[in-house]
Fold this sequence. Notes:
With about 600 residues, this protein is α+β, with helices and mostly antiparallel strands. Among the domains are: about 100-125 and about 160-255, Reverse transcriptase/Diguanylate cyclase domain (Alpha-Beta Plaits); about 340-435, Dna Ligase, domain 1 (2-Layer Sandwich), CATH 3.30.1490.100; about 450-585, no CATH class. The protein has helices at about 30-40, 45-70, 75-90, 110-115, 140, 150-155, 170-185, 200-210, 210-225, 240-245, 260-270, 280-290, 295-300, 305-310, 310-320, 350-370, 405-415, 445-455, 470-485, 555-580, 585, and strands spanning about 100-105, 125-130, 135, 160-165, 190-195, 195-200, 230-235, 255, 340-350, 375-385, 390-400, 425-435, 495-500, 520-525, 530-535, 535-540, 540-545. The chain has a five-stranded mixed beta sheet with strand order 5-6-1-7-8. The structure holds 2'-deoxycytidine-5'-triphosphate and magnesium ion. 2'-deoxycytidine-5'-triphosphate (DCP) binds next to strand 1, helix 4 and strand 3. Its EC number is 2.7.7.7.
Amino acid sequence: MEATSDGDRPWQSYHTVYTNAKAGMEGVDKEKVQKIIYELSEGSKYFENEKRKEAIIKQKIDNLRTHHAKLTEKEITHFQRIADNRILELEASRDLSKIWLHIDMDAFYAAVATLENPSLKGKPLAVGSMSMICTASYEARKYGVRAAMPGFIACKLCPDLIFVPTNFEKYTYYSELTRNVFSKYDPDFIATSLDEAYLNITDTCSQRGIGCEEVAVELRNTIFQETGLTCSVGVAPNRMLAKVCSDINKPNGQFILPNDYNAVMTFISSLPIRKVGGIGKVSEQILRDVLGISTCADMLQKGAVLYALFHQCSTDFFLSVGLGLGGTDTPQQKMRKSISNERTFSATNDESILFQKLADIAETLSKDMQKECLLGRTLTLKLKTASFEVRTRATTLQKFVNSKEDILIYASKLLRAELPLSLRLMGLRMSHLDDDDKHSPLDPMQKTLTSFLTIGNVAPIADKSADFDASDIQLSVRDYVAVSYGNHAESLNECPKTRNKYESIEKISDVSSLFDHKGGVVASSSSSSRIIVEPYWVGGYICSQCGIEVPASFTEERRQHLDYHLADMLHKEECRSLLQSFPHKESGRKKQKYIPIDAFFVKGQKRF
Ligand code: DCP
Ligand code: MG
């Protein structure tokens, strides 16, 4: 933001999520929008939070620049060799045999509102309220109005703006209609939100002997016939590229990137990094300001320095972006098994209100779980404070649960440990799920204990890939990560959002959370005897803990997956301490310090 360094035009560097261009905002007078947003938000908590984040990022950029400047020729040569080898390996993994289609409904909530009330057609429309809007029609976007923007700012940008309230029943209804169509083209389609999905259309194309272009046109027509809504489609050899492509001809358009090496490399050579899912505002800023990287192709040129400055899994991701690689296999269904519900509301520190809201969320979550016959064992509480800091706290239960009462007991315990606090969002997520007919409630505890006894210490191996001390940047990045989640769809005003097991993520957020990994020891259970290292993504997509693959763009999936492992680690700590009371089982082991599980939920302690 650097608001003070720009003299009489401080808004010029005031880049917020509101000033990011979305489809349909190409001709917008960016400076005018920035000025209005700056003036209206100056002094607000949002403004303060943006300043705080900016200071953290600036510090990180300075540290990285210093580190960059200190790199010796020998180090550069060393990292260049690593980068060259990795590029060869990544290239060898290129799979051009699959055809992926990404579909994204156009101005979804606004389009549904217009369908229900045709008099709104062609008018500047915002869905939401004065405090927050969820989306805007393309007519409104011309004025700079966009999702996640407070309504009062939107009004200033577009005085004729019409507001309509949200209607989640309707969105779910239309979303179901679209999913019925998707399943005809790919029964294993991956829905990433109510209005977006990835379809592997390889089989459809070959079985029907038609090209992907024809499939895309037919699919869009069918969606329109079934729903009356338009959508945009991108087709490419992998999901990363397909998503980029679906945005190119929005609204009501499509873009096909052929399954051809030269076509992919040409496409990627001038693609701005920001267009790639997982590279958000912060990643873009860091890569640009530290290394002068602006296009995907630049990533390949800077491979050595990337390896020198960032953790291997981050750099692997960057290089794969530079090569135009992305997910081509359908992730295992198991990975999408988590269920959550969250609400945004006007910030309050009234504990009775907060506990009432928590009870409401627990009730919705419980109902959704029961509807899907799911039981869960890892409960995560997500909080967004009045100052926009996001915290997550997780606990692993001794048994699988899905009743409101059970969920509320543990959720309340997690919340109580954080209070007093003024909050604007709360959410509950249940992961580590199972079908309720598969296990008796006591099974998991038994299973964990047994596996511990047979496998022994399962702490993952610390990353030793780097002889680089990242301690200088680690703290600031951790802080940033804690505040960075949720720029996106979490800004709804009092609107419940339940994701089911088929909805893996709402939106892609920033891969900058990966930056923090060099030397990424996060939880030290006992400083002398044992170190727990947070699992990380080997090669950018393989979990270091269990080997399961989750593509980089599945940010929410990854978060849930890591939550699960972290909670599991904590649970194993408990088991380990229990075992210490049986010396004959522990002979030959070093004494472990018992860390009560509650210690990890102490106020202010961040695990993410
Ligand atoms: N949404 C939200 N809050 C956000 C972003 C989105 O509530 N910050 C909701 C409203 C959108 C829906 O999710 O209608 C789909 O999000 P998209 O990002 O796909 O946006 P749209 O479908 O509205 O527009 P586009 O045509 O750009 O896809
Ligand atoms: Mg959309």
